[in-house]
């Protein structure tokens, strides 16, 4: 039950984009088209989940025993960058279909602060391995949910009568703010 | 120990980066675009500014 509460909390209430304001760059940049947004979300989900697991294991089984826990930040950055390179190479060789669907977004994810944010949050929050896995799944699923909804709204805004000065990024930011207010209303649910 | 660990990570990243660059893209994936509309980060390779310069 606690794991379920953690999952819902990270998915909706403490949403990585609308509550913590991480990963706003891909939210604004890759949300013009709902299909691209969904592909980006799937790629982010995969990378964050794997990165969360690997960084947790590295921290508790390498950094802490070697008394170099202070190097967690640089370690996580390099490991995440290496992981993305490996995943891209693996997809190119083994699954061209998946690479075609989401491979182009992988380099974007390297600089996505949500990946590092999840890795560091798992450590600072003191999660065990299972909780870290749940967090590694809930956070990117929350990101995917938000970016997909945001993309569908932006697609409709393209057809709507928007004042000239608000077209493009301004109305997108207003939309994101309204979504953040809506998510904030869920505070206290879990 | 910290320096040794850093060296391992850096060489790991360089090795994977080079290996990834050498791996050819699958057929039909040569001209994929992220569909990113770009922002003010001009050092990002996905920013459409760079694609416009290549087209010129």
TrEMBL record, chain A:
TM region(s), chain numbering: 6-30, 42-62, 68-91, 103-120, 132-153, 165-186
Claim: Lyase is one of the keywords in the record: no
Any one annotated GO CC term: endomembrane system
Main location: membrane
Topology class, membrane: Multi-pass membrane protein
Entry-linked Pfam families: Rnf-Nqr
Compartmental location: Cell membrane; Endomembrane system
Keyword hit for Transmembrane: yes
Keywords: Cell membrane, Electron transport, Membrane, Translocase, Transmembrane, Transmembrane helix, Transport
Domain of life: Bacteria
The enzyme's E.C. designation: 7.-.-.-
UniProt-listed GO biological process terms: electron transport chain
InterPro entries attached to this UniProt entry: Ion_transpt_RnfA/RsxA, NqrDE/RnfAE, NqrDE/RnfAE_oxidrdctase
Family to which the UniProt record says this protein belongs: Belongs to the NqrDE/RnfAE family.
Subunit-level organization: The complex is composed of six subunits: RnfA, RnfB, RnfC, RnfD, RnfE and RnfG.
Function, in words: Part of a membrane-bound complex that couples electron transfer with translocation of ions across the membrane.
HAMAP family attached to this UniProt entry: RsxA_RnfA
PANTHER family: INTEGRAL MEMBRANE PROTEIN OF SOXR-REDUCING COMPLEX, ION-TRANSLOCATING OXIDOREDUCTASE COMPLEX SUBUNIT A
Protein name: Ion-translocating oxidoreductase complex subunit A
Native organism: Candidatus Fimiplasma intestinipullorum
Gene designation: rnfA
